[in-house]
Amino acid sequence: MRALVVFDTTYGNTARIARAIGEALAAAGAEGVDVRSVALVSGADLVGVDLLVVGGPTQRHGLSRTLAGWLGELGRDSLAGMRAATFDTRYRLPRLLTGSAAAGAARRLRQRAVWLAGALTVAAVLALAAVWFGRQATLSADSAQAEARSRAT
User: Fold this and answer.
1) How far is CA 135 from the centre of its chain?
2) HEC states along 5-63?
3) Per-residue pLDDT tens for 25-71?
4) Residue 117 exposure: Cα atoms within 13 Å on the Cβ side
């Protein structure tokens, strides 16, 4: 199963989390895991992808303009049948107060006919990877600390 982790980042926190997710997916048995900045992903990169993980920083209670633009460029049924999950980095407060880039990405992906696990925590993305790929996926200690720091800032 081929996995692609697409991220946008402002200060580097989301990039660190995306790389940690990619490493965990590979450890769980995904073949051909690719982690890329949204600026470097084209429609051709989505061909043959079985699992798409999309993440970005929460800005103005939602998606960054870059990530929203990329998702908007995808055709209505361009991802039909693909599995997907979303994540975000944001200040550690209730989502009602901060908004959620993951929720915004999830809404846009649903419109593209994906099988969507939803707007998830990183731990939930990894738990799904264990189910999908048949092996336990875990974050390294450094990655877990990076996630904790990104949630606190």
Assistant:
1) 19
2) EEECCCCCHHHHHHHHHHHHHHHCCCCCCEEEEHHHCCHHHHCCCCEEEEEEECECCEC
3) 888 787 889 999 999 998 888 888 888 899 998 877 678 899 989 88
4) 21
Task: Give the mean pLDDT of 83-98.
Answer: 74
Checking if the pLDDT of 115 tops 90, the result is no
Contacts of 21 (CB under 8 A, 6+ apart): 5, 35, 53, 55, 87, 122, 125, 126
**More confidently predicted of 124 and 54:** 54
106 phi and psi angles, rounded to 5 deg: -60, -45
Give the number of other CB atoms < 10 A from CB of residue 125.
25
CB 9 within 8 Å of CB 39: no
Question: Which string of b and e fits 5-33 if b means at least 16 CB within 10 Å?
Answer: bbbbbeeebbbbbbebbbbbbbbbbbeeb
- Collect all residues with Cβ–Cβ distance below 8 Å to 151 and sequence separation of at least 6: 89, 90, 91, 92
- Retrieve residue 115's tokens: 């099988």
Q: How confident is the model at residue 60, as a pLDDT?
A: 78
